[in-house]
Amino acid sequence: MEKVLFFCVFSSWIMRIISSDVSEHEVTLLSVQLNENISLNCNMTDRYEIGWFHQHSQQITQLISAKTSKVSGKRLLVTYNQNWSHLKVDADTEVTTVSLVITGLTESDSGLYFCGTKSVTSEMHFDKPIRLEIEDKLTDKWDSVTEPADVEITDGVTTKERALMFGGVGLAVFVFFLTTVIAGGIIYHRGWQKGWKEAKRTSLMGQKSAK
């Protein structure tokens, strides 16, 4: 009866999250590859019971439930496992962090994951939901092949390299400007000398004709 009541309360809480904007809630987003293994952590400090739940295609499924040993309190006993070959739980020595381990991820493993824990009261406390996105390695490989070359080059350029490139361009512009000024000065000086000599020569010719 207690489990039925808990599941009704939990389902109502999940439905509120699903029906509202996900951006309003804190959700951890994880992107993983097909066939990989992943661990999802849950805080078990001062808790004695834990349950992992999965929401996929509007369906909520309980994956695993476990509780600490009444003898030592530092041992986790699994009371339910939906798929022993695909799911398991790991805990640290003090059973303060419990991880849901999923091996060989498939498309059906995508969706929202919820970790619920209980203390001395019957109330279940939930950690921040985790949204799992499954990516296909072949699709990612194809996307990387068809990615434009200029994007790859831009991504490969570091800040230091960009600074060096812009510095080199600035230096080239400055050298060009300085060279232009110097060349203009030389041309002006030579033109002035040529004009002065021509004027002097004309003056001498005028003096000779006057005599």
TrEMBL record:
Segments passing through the bilayer: 163-188
Organism lineage = Eukaryota, Metazoa, Chordata, Craniata, Vertebrata
State the UniProt keywords alphabetically.
Answer: Cell membrane, Disulfide bond, Glycoprotein, Immunity, Membrane, Signal, Transmembrane, Transmembrane helix
Name a single GO biological process.
Answer: response to bacterium
> Signal peptide location in the record?
1-20
Source organism per entry reads Culter alburnus
Annotated SUPFAM superfamilies? Immunoglobulin (SSF48726)
Q: What is its main location?
A: membrane
Q: Which residues form the Immunoglobulin domain?
A: 27-135
Q: Which Pfam families does this chain map to?
A: V-set
Please give the PANTHER family that the UniProt record associates with this protein: T CELL RECEPTOR ALPHA VARIABLE 4, T-CELL RECEPTOR ALPHA CHAIN V REGION-RELATED
Which InterPro entries does this chain map to? Ig-like_dom_sf, Ig-like_fold, Ig_sub, Ig_V-set, TCR_complex_component
Compartment(s):
Cell membrane
Protein name listed in UniProt = Immunoglobulin domain-containing protein
